[in-house]
Design a protein that fits this description.
Strand 12 and strand 13 form a beta hairpin. The strands form 2 sheets. This protein has a 7-stranded mixed beta sheet. The protein has 3 domains: about 5-255, Metallo-beta-lactamase domain (Metallo-beta-lactamase, Chain A, 4-Layer Sandwich), CATH 3.60.15.30; about 260-310, no CATH class; about 325-405, Serine Threonine Protein Phosphatase 5, Tetratricopeptide repeat (Alpha Horseshoe), CATH 1.25.40.880. By secondary structure, the chain is an alpha/beta fold. It has 16 helices and 13 strands.
Length: about 400
């Protein structure tokens, strides 16, 4: 197995596709990428930095991989952990502290001030988060945690830290989350960007999760691009080495978000409905062709919906949808007009090869009109299996795969 920087170069030049090296499928041993800088590629990556007499971590990984992260970091250095910076509060980034704290000492956790409220919300909505993540990742045994390691120190906008002679600059950026932090180590020209860059189209539209902030995210990407980093360590996917590549990856990610945001807002200002906007606003193809912006996790169509939600609320502009009839009642009426649920289902099956979106609507209406008809249910399963197979993003594959099951 080559180094992560070799893989990064192969991905950049298209010798390896991002589909074959998905940013959420990594699991490697620790690699020293520069003097005093190591990287653990995992489902959520961990960056390790040595100071004079101690260790600093940016993110600590997920609970299932906590022992792996600890073991592989300890194969690189035995220096005691002094500080861990949580880039944001997603559970794949903040559950690796326990093995390090078990060594003794009192390592501190530093994060943005919004993180404790995030953890409180996770406890409040644990059942919902468990259900949506089971669906999103196709993991029916996933259990959502009810207890969290809260930060010891929080900050508002910027925070300068000095740890064992190592200087770190923490900056808040609302993006994928409201509590995101990117960490800049100027003496080593290393940027730890968290999930603000993940070798995929930005996760700014996740259909099952809380609000994202594409406009502020884009501004943060452009600010990071001006730092002059020579090594960027992302929250998912492989590092990028070289100032020119880092600047390009960050500015083009910003360009994608700005386009989706601005085009959506322009149509909203003209009074357009959400349905019209979703089917009109598209991401520039030259950006989607970049190996680091392909929609393999989230996708631009969902970002458009999130921009609407940010500014326009939950109503989509369709008067009938403001106070709708129950879905099953509407489905039964349409099925009756069409000649029965089986007629709708048969039409859905006939559309599989030509219009999967329409096939999905008809299969769903048929199943809602007669949820006990096993023939209808089987056609619905076939339609959603076809839909899942035709998608590239984890989000869409997860929902359609769940529907098929």
């Amino acid at each position: 197995m080559g180094s992560v920087l070799d893989l990064s170069d192969d991905l950049w030049h298209g010798r390896v596709s991002i589909e074959d090296s998905h940013p959420f499928s990594m699991l490697r041993e620790v690699e020293e990428l520069a003097a005093g800088v190591a990287f653990v590629a995992s489902f959520a990556n961990v960056s390790a930095l040595t100071a004079e007499d101690c260790l600093v971590l940016v993110d600590t990984g997920s609970k299932p991989l906590a022992e792996h992260v600890h073991r592989t970091v300890r194969s690189w250095t035995s220096k005691p952990l002094h500080t861990a910076v949580f880039s944001h509060g997603h559970i794949d980034h903040v559950f690796g502290m326990a093995p390090f704290e078990a060594e003794g000492g009192s390592p501190r956790v530093v994060a943005h001030r919004a993180m404790p409220a995030r953890f409180d919300r996770y406890v409040l909505t644990a059942g919902y988060n468990e259900a949506v993540n089971q669906r999103q990742f196709g993991m029916p045994d996933l259990r959502w945690p009810r207890e969290y390691r809260y930060p010891d120190e929080t900050y508002d906008d910027r925070l300068a830290l000095s740890v064992g002679g190592l200087h770190l600059e923490l900056t808040h950026c609302r993006g994928e989350t409201d509590d995101h932090t990117y960490t800049w180590i100027p003496a080593r020209k290393v940027l730890c960007c968290g999930d603000l860059f993940i070798w995929a189209s930005p996760n700014a539209g996740n259909p099952q999760k809380v609000q994202r902030y594409p406009r502020e995210w884009a501004r943060g990407l452009r600010d990071m691009a001006e730092l002059g980093a020579e090594l960027m360590l992302p929250g998912h996917g492989v590092p990028i080495a070289g100032a020119d590549r880092i600047r390009q990856a960050l500015t083009e990610s910003a360009e994608l978000l700005e386009h989706l945001h601005d085009a959506t807002v322009a149509m909203m200002n003209e009074g357009a409905r959400l349905d019209d906007i979703v089917h009109t606003v598209k991401a520039p193809q030259h950006l989607l062709d970049r190996p680091y912006l392909k929609p393999v996790y989230d996708e631009p169509e969902f970002v458009v919906r999130n921009v609407w939600r940010l500014y326009g609320g939950w109503w989509d502009g369709d008067p009938a949808a403001l106070k709708p009839a129950p879905a099953a009642v509407l489905a039964a009426e349409i099925a009756s007009l069409a000649g029965g649920p089986a007629r709708l289902a048969d039409r859905a099956l006939a559309l599989i090869d030509t219009d999967l979106r329409l096939a999905g609507h008809l299969a769903e209406l048929a199943a809602q009109a007669d949820p006990d008809d096993m023939g209808v249910a089987d056609i619905k399963r076939q339609v959603y299996l076809a839909r899942a197979g035709a998608e590239s993003s984890t989000m869409a594959k997860g929902v359609f795969g769940w529907a098929a099951r």
